[in-house]
Amino acid sequence: MAKKTYDLLFKLLLIGDSGVGKTCVLFRFSDDAFNTTFISTIGIDFKIKTVELQGKKIKLQIWDTAGQERFHTITTSYYRGAMGIMLVYDITNGKSFENISKWLRNIDEHANEDVERMLLGNKCDMDDKRVVPKGKGEQIAREHGIRFFETSAKANINIEKAFLTLAEDILRKTPVKEPNSENVDISSGGGVTGWKSKCC
Amino acid sequence: MEEPPLREEEEEEGDEAGPEGALGKSPFQLTAEDVYDISYVMGRELMALGSDPRVTQLQFKIVRVLEMLETLVNEGSLTVEELRMERDNLRKEVEGLRREGSAAGREVNLGPDKMVVDLTDPNRPRFTLQELRDVLQERNKLKSQLLVVQEELQCYKSGLIPAREGPGGRREKGALVTRASNASSNKEEKTIIRKLFSFRSGKQT
């Protein structure tokens, strides 16, 4: 396609329990908007956002998964092509925090070994309803050697920072190539196999 | 519920027949009152026999037998009462189960991992996971294609692609659709892209 509108394509994935705000986090980042009504994601969806890092235009294709158990067989098939995974929990929902180890295990089982991981404690604007101390999030992130942010899609806290940091971490691992030798293909986004494109 | 009126009737009969009436009753309908009536009748007749020591001997045994009969009658009526309550409870239980059963149909026979689907429910589950997977894949594919087309349209609108190159560009797009299976078009595409966007990448780097 006449699309050298970007230099690199990174594929990211959002996972975590149902209702923690994965879709809202993504919506804030891609459209800078927030919607309070809860609409459960059906299976899997994605959004595109192009950012500029170190003079490179990086197209982020961000896959948003349904947290509900009944979609897991569909969503886990999308782990494989992800270069970065954001694991989201809700600081007002203890269960969503307890399930982090389960999600991390899912990553180990289904994602690429060198996938860049990040932990997000969302809804940090709701401090009066907080049940997960920030320290606990930091601790579990440290134990697994991954980055951690507390975010709020509603109050727009740390959302862009989280995505840009994850993209930077992936960029750092990306071998430098002659920019125009990239031939990335976003039109096959639906299939896992579509991502064997030479984008990394 | 049926017994008390019956008993009353019997008592009335008994009253009419005098204490002797108790001796004519069915042993299964005997009450403690009847036993006392029988005791009264027998005691009276024993007294009439005089004070022979053998009669006295016999009297002790008769009293003992009557006491035993009294105990058995009391015990029996208690058991009947308990059984009657038990029967009423079970009747209610059966009634309830029958009502549930007619609502839930054959559910009782299903295994632990089975589910009953209400065929009249318009929102009942009816598609398979594979079907959902296919639809989602197609949706996401179309969505990404739309994004590509939108970007391309933006290029035309902003004048990045000169109008005279329009037809060529369009032909190129046709080739792009089948790009995955056509490696040669890749090269062609890249050169065109490079031509069209060289000033852009120059600006970026």
Automatic annotation (TrEMBL), chain B:
GO terms for molecular function: dynein light intermediate chain binding; protein dimerization activity; small GTPase binding. Residues 124-196 form the RH2 domain. It is found in: Cell projection, Cilium; Cytoplasm, Cytoskeleton, Microtubule organizing center, Centrosome; Cytoplasm, Cytosol. It comes from the Eukaryota. Residues 73-107 form a coiled coil. InterPro entries: DZIP_RILPL, RH1, RH2, RILP_dimer. GO terms for biological process: cilium assembly; protein transport. Keywords: Cell projection, Cilium, Coiled coil, Cytoplasm, Cytoskeleton, Protein transport, Transport. One of its GO terms (cellular component) is cytosol. PANTHER family: RILP-LIKE PROTEIN 2, ZINC FINGER PROTEIN DZIP1. This is RILP-like protein 2.
